[in-house]
Design a protein that fits this description.
Blueprint (H helix, E strand, L loop, with lengths): L1 E5 L4 H8 L1 H9 L4 E8 L12 H18 L3 E8 L2 H12 L3 E6 L13 H8 L4 E5 L17 E5 L4 H7 L2 H4 L5 E8 L11 H13 L4 E8 L2 H12 L3 E5 L5 H4 L5 H8 L3 E5 L6
Helix pairs in contact: 4-5, 5-11, 9-11
Family: Belongs to the universal stress protein A family.
Protein name: Nucleotide-binding universal stress UspA family protein
């Protein structure tokens, strides 16, 4: 499995790349080759006063490469220029990546009002499953909030086609997952009784995970999906929340409010977003 790891050469990126436990988790789910990608914005130039981009890039990427190679991975590096989320997706498509990884320091009042961060833009547009590594905020030397990435997985489902496809991620996560919480949030838009009892449907999924030795609980909630899922994530102390992204029209992409984006912006831990089939 190939993974693209996006870095902006910040302290937060270092935390995601240099954490030995994190790299070990990636190895357990089958990642063998990591492509390090750093994107230089088009409006930033090496000749600008005080900007020693070339030396800084080479020095940081060389250090990151050595760390990742020492952990047993094959490594390639890519320095590209342009819009970060577009270029990251471009590299992922070119190398045939099965996973894209990006660090995020999480929510802030500004980030919750304005779409601008690479993590949130990738949530909308990613062509491969996207792992958002949650990094500590407000400290000079940040660390990963949840080092054991896939130890405790919260899987959120609305029983849609893409949610079913998202569940298949357990086919590789199971090698690193100890227990899982399967959650469905009832809303007024839920289908009628003819589609089956949601608890029975969750129990069926739990049975599949039990065959892989994963201890599983199920929970049904009612209310706002994002709020309820975030409440379960906190109570369950999930290391990663697994959910699908259905994708939206161009107009919808300009607006805040999707469940997936709210989870990415506000979750305490890591988030793994699986895009629709059409984007894969």
């Amino acid at each position: 499995m190939k993974a693209v790891c996006a870095t902006d050469l910040s302290a937060a990126s270092e935390a995601a790349i240099e954490t030995e436990t994190c790299l070990h988790c990636l190895g357990k789910i089958g990642v063998e080759e990591i492509h390090l990608v750093t994107v230089i914005p088009s409006n930033v130039h090496a000749g600008m006063p005080g900007m020693k981009f070339e030396k800084r890039r080479k020095r940081a990427l060389a250090r990151y490469r050595e760390i990742i190679e020492d952990a047993g991975f094959a490594v390639e590096t890519h320095v590209v220029r342009g819009t970060p989320h577009r270029r990251i997706n471009g590299v992922a498509g070119t190398v045939g990546a099965s996973l894209t990884i990006v660090g995020s320091r999480g929510k802030s009042p500004l980030e919750n009002r304005i779409i601008g961060s690479t993590a949130r833009n990738l949530t909308r547009t990613t062509i491969a499953p996207l792992l958002v590594n949650r990094i500590e905020r407000g400290v000079e030397s940040p660390e990963l909030v949840r080092e054991h990435l896939f130890d405790r997985v919260l899987y959120a489902t609305d029983f849609s086609e893409n949610a079913d496809r998202t569940f298949e991620a357990f086919s590789y996560l199971r090698h690193a997952t100890v227990d899982a919480m399967l959650v469905h949030v009832r809303t007024p838009k839920d289908p009628g009784p003819e589609s089956g009892d949601p608890r029975d449907r969750l129990s069926e999924l739990a049975g599949r995970l039990a065959e892989w030795g994963i201890e599983t609980d199920v929970e049904i909630r009612q209310g706002d999906p994002a709020e309820e899922l975030l409440a379960v994530e906190e109570a369950y102390s999930a290391t990663t929340t697994l959910l699908g992204s259905r994708g939206h029209s161009r107009l919808r992409r300009l607006l805040l409010g999707s469940v997936t984006e709210d989870i990415v912006a506000n979750a305490n831990g890591n988030v793994l977003v699986v895009p629709p089939e059409r984007s894969a």
